[in-house]
Write a structure and sequence with these properties.
The complex is a heterodimer. Chain A is mainly α. Chain A contains 2 helices and 1 strand; from the N terminus they run H-E-H. Classes of the chains: A mainly alpha, B alpha/beta.
Chain lengths: 44, 459
């Protein structure tokens, strides 16, 4: 096996982990209080 | 990119190239590479550290999504409008907790707000939010304290009368609630938070007691049991030297009482009484992470979660910055931006934490226009406090996962807004732990079910 192919396969063993989700920001809680999300409550 | 620099930006960490800060997250297989300004992160396999220079991934991701990430962070940090009010219907409290951020004289000798004044406040707030929020969004109004239920009759009358105009919440010590009150709260779907510092009377009594120094523990436990199964119920535990070594046991206790959400808050050192019982950062971090681990064990054993919300918020700040629920751990913080506080005299402050600090009183709800108070110099002290202006935050890789809270604490502890808060090392350890969970693909176990129902995947 060529060195470059070996390196390529090794990269597959453990891949970079990187991901991100986004949404319309609605955070209004603070360390004095927990806002319980109404939609989430309905789903439970 | 500065076009006056001839660098084509092809090389990492030089010229116009992208900048990555490297941090050891304490994981056997991964380290983190972070572009701090974008809150962009990658976990790189240690055995393939050369991947940090891989043009096909990291640099390409930033090229493709960098402007979206920048826009997201700018929106979160600078473009929000208030949608929540923390409203103090009384200056009084029936307890005398040593770490309270409301000065003792106010809590002991203050006054209740009258129903007429409360109603005047609701009308003014309703009018303000009708202009500033879209029709689809109802503002949150949280009765806070001191102890809001000292003025219980007026609070409940307001909830009944304005239930279509606000999502109401109450943060209370629980001691003034009777069975009828609890039924009222459940019937009206009010979000309620109870303060409880320990699972054992002898520990809880060290930090929460009435003006005669008497225990309130048994009463609070009765209230906890009465709310069992009510899904808009949460508990706040303030962590001090007294209970820091008991956090895992407290999680066991709360989980057994079917509490779904809790905060394990490091005590805020805004007023001097709190500093005397502040736990050391490293002890706080160690015990806090043990408690997080315990919450996970309980989830695996029972299939039922107790979410430690302040840690969940750190996880969210990494994997979905805009989805965070708490606005303390972002810079500028949410004070005066996404929420503001109203004292029992109508004084407007960026956050309840500032109510004992006259310098931060931006105006009066009954006398001034809300918009002008939000733009006051007092509010700007908080809304313009940025990690970029604080040392060592300005060179810290995790500055947008932490936000250097709390400005009130920084101001009172260190005499300046451009100083860090009281728990820098605690945040370092929380973020490193969150990254270890992400490396092991376990992060969702520490968040709410369906937490991402309104999110979209950026990459």
């Amino acid at each position: 096996m060529s060195e470059s192919k070996q390196q390529s396969e090794n990269k597959q063993d453990k891949k970079i982990i990187s991901h991100r989700k986004n949404c319309d920001p609605k955070g209004t809680g603070l360390s004095h209080y927990i806002i319980v999300d109404e939609k989430k409550v309905r789903k439970q | 990119m500065n076009k006056n620099a001839s660098s084509a930006g092809k090389l990492v960490n030089t010229g116009n190239g992208q900048n990555f800060n490297i941090i050891d997250i304490g994981h056997k297989d991964y380290f983190a590479a972070i572009e701090p300004d974008l809150a962009f992160w990658s976990l790189i396999p240690k055995e393939h550290s050369e991947l940090i220079f891989d043009k096909d991934y990291l640099q390409k991701t930033i090229s493709l999504h960098g402007s979206d990430m920048k826009d997201e962070m700018d929106t979160l940090r600078f473009r929000l409008k208030p949608s929540c009010v923390y409203f103090n219907p009384t200056e009084l409290c029936n307890l005398n907790c040593p770490y309270c951020y409301i000065p003792e004289k106010i809590r002991k000798d203050g006054e209740n707000m009258s129903f007429e004044k409360m109603e005047e406040a609701m009308k003014k707030l309703k009018k303000y939010f009708s202009k500033s929020l879209p029709d689809s969004r109802k503002p949150d109004l949280i009765f806070h304290g001191s102890e809001p239920l000292v003025n219980k009759i007026n609070v409940f009358k307001i909830i009944e009368k304005y239930k279509n105009d606000f999502n109401f919440g109450i943060q209370t010590n629980g001691t003034l609630l009777d069975d009828d009150d609890i039924e009222f709260i459940k019937y009206h779907n009010v979000v309620i938070g109870i303060s409880l510092d320990a699972h054992k009377k002898e520990i809880a009594d060290l930090s929460r007691y009435n003006w005669d120094g008497e225990t309130i523990f048994d009463k609070v436990i009765k209230v906890l049991e009465a709310f069992k199964g009510y899904n808009k119920f949460s508990v706040i535990t303030t962590v001090t030297n007294h209970n820091v070594s008991e956090l895992s046991s407290i999680i066991d206790f709360l989980h057994a009482h079917h509490v779904e959400n809790c905060l394990l808050n490091q005590v805020r050192c805004t007023l001097p009484g709190a500093g005397k019982i502040k736990p050391d950062d490293s002890v706080m971090a160690e015990q806090f992470i043990k408690a997080i681990d315990r919450s996970h064990e309980l989830f695996i054993e029972t299939g039922r979660k107790i979410v430690i919300v302040n840690f969940a918020n750190i996880v969210l700040s990494i994997i979905a910055p805009s989805a965070r629920k708490l606005m303390c751990d972002i810079s500028p913080c949410g004070g005066g931006r996404s929420f503001f506080a109203v004292s029992a005299e109508g004084g407007m402050f960026p956050c309840s934490e500032f109510i004992g600090l006259p310098k931060f009183n931006g105006g009066n709800l009954f006398e001034d226009e809300i918009e002008s108070v939000l733009n006051s110099d007092s509010f700007k002290l908080v809304t313009e406090r940025k990690v970029e202006d604080i040392d060592p935050c300005n060179k810290c890789a995790i500055r947008h996962f932490c936000g250097s809270p709390c400005p009130a604490e920084a101001h009172e502890l260190h005499g300046s807004m451009q100083e860090p808060g009281a728990f820098c090392e605690f945040y370092e350890q929380q973020v490193r732990y969150a990254f270890r969970l992400i490396a092991d693909k376990k992060e969702n176990d520490f968040l709410w079910e369906n937490w991402d129902y309104e999110t979209v995947s950026m990459f």
